[in-house]
Amino acid sequence: MKPSPWSAERESALLDHMRAGLSASQIAEKLGGGISRGAVIGKLRRMGLHLPTMPHKLAAARPRKKRPAAPITAVAPRVPATPVTPVTPVTPVTPVTLLASEPHHCKWPVSEVRGPDTLYCGAHRENEVGPYCRQHRIKAKGFARGEGFVL
């Protein structure tokens, strides 16, 4: 294990420099021996102390530019950028169980029962990729195949 760079003399020098109003980087420079600004701040925190905020440095900070006030105008109501296409209702089909379903059937669960007796939509998936028919794909993903989001 590496010996601590903080000897009793360095700790007292740290406290003296802090009371003198030096910044952490100035204290680190005065202490030397590989002590960094972060090490000074960390040691002070472990000692339950912190460097005081220096009001003269805050006042010397770059002044902010004042922006002119924007004129007050009437706000137009928001209109969606792209019109939302309504989802056509699912055509009534006979629900199927998973064991009775075929590869072209929609696998959207339509019953509250879970397990082998769960009923699925069973609508024909046509050319859809994935387990759902067009209506359930829109409900699940927000878009149908070939209608993905464009950035």
Please describe what this structure looks like.
- The protein is mostly helical and 151 residues long.
- The chain folds into two domains: 8-58; 87-151, no CATH class.
- It contains five helices and two strands, in the order ααααββα.
- The model has no long low-confidence stretch (mean pLDDT 77).
How would a crystallographer describe the biggest sheet?
A: 2 strands, antiparallel
Shape, please?
elongated
Quaternary structure: single chain
H-E string: HHHHEEH
With helices defined by DSSP (H or I, 4 residues minimum), what is the helix count?
5
Rg: 35 Å
Biggest sheet strand order reads: 1-2
In the residues, how many domains can be counted?
2
Structural class: mainly alpha
Mean pLDDT: 77
Q: Give the N-terminus to C-terminus distance in angstroms.
A: 54 Å
Unreliable spans are: none
Number of distinct beta strands: 2
Helical percentage: 25-40%
The proportion of strand residues reads: under 5%
